[in-house]
Amino acid sequence: MGPESVILLMISAWFLVAAAMLWGILRIARRHAVYHQPHAAMPTPAPLPARRKTPRPKLPRPVLTPAYRAAHHFAHR
Known about the structure:
Blueprint: H1 3-35, H2 66-73
């Protein structure tokens, strides 16, 4: 392969990379423009009222004896 064909191959590869990057940037810009265009024709829906769940009753904590607390305190060692 001669040096002129290597140079032409490098130039064409550079053009391909530049075209791919330009295509990606234009795609991102187009998506950004579509996402941020004003939607004046569409009416805004009324917000739905918040529905709250009834709170679950809390269970009483178990009564821990000092021996039980000491055994669990040293269990991780």
